[in-house]
Amino acid sequence: MNTDRHYDSLISMYAAAPLNKFYNPTMRLEDGYAEIEIELDSKLHHSAGGVHGSVYFKMLDDAAFFAANTLEPEFFVLTTSFTTYITRPVSSGIMKAIGKVVNKKNTQFIAEAIVYDSENREIGRGNGIFVRSKMRLKDAQGFNQEQGSS
Q1: Beta carbons of 55 and 123 less than 8 angstroms apart
Q2: Quick one: which of 77, 81, 79 has its CA closest to 135?
Q3: Which of 19, 53, 111, 125 is deepest in the core (most CB within 10 A)?
Q4: pTM beyond cutoff 0.90
Q5: 128 lies in a domain?
Q6: Is-contact 70 7, C-beta < 8 A?
């Protein structure tokens, strides 16, 4: 497996997800590692003016998920459980989530993620269990193993 090509294909798949047209995230991948950033604005706020908890969850789950999928070259992984802790409110700037695989066993991955604000302060953390699905990555929207690295 060409690792750079796999990472490029995962990034392409992430960008092609219809939901990400709303969030407009950027992502960087390494082996067992994912880093995702989004710029915050009021469309992500709850009525008290802070970023809604669903955004924290999305950032944390996505970072952990893609960290796991860097280690699975053929199949889409699925989140089977995920625990989220919101440790600090945020309303503006950048949210950056970093996910890392902490355990891999056959078809199961355990990954952790931390999300930071623009001042590099931890604002949330989470961990989850991910399993290999039966869906081949090549069949996922936007995944193109043939595209190669730029």
Answers
A1: no
A2: 77
A3: 111
A4: yes
A5: yes
A6: yes
Please name the residue that has the structure tokens 């970072």.
Answer: 63
- Residue 139, token pair as written in the block: 């069949």
Nearest Cα to 123, choosing from 80, 99, 88? 88
Domain containing 126: what range? 3-137
Q: How far is it, in rounded angstroms, from Cα 104 to Cα 32? A: 10
List the chain pLDDT tens, one digit each, 150 residues. 588 999 999 999 999 999 999 999 999 999 999 999 999 999 999 999 999 999 999 999 999 999 999 999 999 999 999 999 999 999 999 999 999 999 999 999 999 999 999 999 999 999 999 999 999 999 999 998 654 433
CB 38 within 8 A of CB 95: yes
CATH number at residue 74: 3.10.129.10
Specify the number of domains making up the chain: 1
Residue 144 within a domain: no
DSSP 129: E
* Alpha carbon distance 125, 88 (integer Å): 10
Does a structural domain hold residue 149?
no
